[in-house]
Amino acid sequence: MKLFNPWLLLVLAGGWSGLAPAQLQLLPDREPQPVFAGDARTIAVVWHNAGRQPANAEIHTRIFQTTSATMVQLGENLWKKLQVLPGQTVLESVQFNFPEVKAETKFLVQWLENTNGIIGVTEVRVYPTNLLEELKPLAENRSLGVFDPQNELKPLLKNAKVDFVDLGNAELEHFPGKLAIIGPFALKAQAPDGLARRIKLLAQKGAAVVWLLPPDSSEKLQPSFYLVPEGLGVVVVAQSALVPDLPVNPESQLHLLNFCELALQPQFLTLPDLASQP
Description:
The chain contains five helices and 15 strands. It is mostly beta strands. The chain has two domains: about 1-125, Immunoglobulins (Immunoglobulin-like, Sandwich); about 130-265. Strands 1-6-5-8-9-3 form a six-stranded mixed β-sheet. About 25% of the residues are buried.
């Protein structure tokens, strides 16, 4: 295990242009890639050969766990011999093992050609696997209401030991709990008749509801999510596209938690005060 000074972050991130070969390039990500802690987590990388000759490189990887003050090298491995034709762009997926973390933690994957030439760096944000345990205090340790037509959410709640009532087997509008999640839906056909009316009745009694809508193929412009006050409660209506691949996508689980918090403690939008801005 090796410790590094923080200034090396700049070097690892490609700040020293002399490290990068001109021919084979690792195209940078727009955002850090999110994964859960654990083994065989998949990272996507895009390679481009900017040269006029085929690129044949033996690619090695180094993994670093970082904080604001230190970098710790966790391992170094040979990945594969990569062949990219002139002008070609190639999408690859690579699996890495990430240690358990207690909170969001930054990792860097350094890509090297033949262990000495740094081609680029991939930033990864690793999250703990128990994110959905946060639903317990949000529901005030009462059972969560769940209508889960794709059976995506219920297995996750069981693993997180979150008590819930399956609203697919009960009268949704009579659910006595504080918080309910309806969806996500893959198709409109998965939504039962009268679902909107039943959700409205549930919210009117004081429940906080998160309704994850099925995809809409119309070209009508719609917000990605919005709040609807109903009686004593609030419904957060959100597009299912904001929570894709719930079992493996930590950002989707974080979005779901944020929607639940918003339904319980709504914060309605206001007009911007332009006069107070510089």
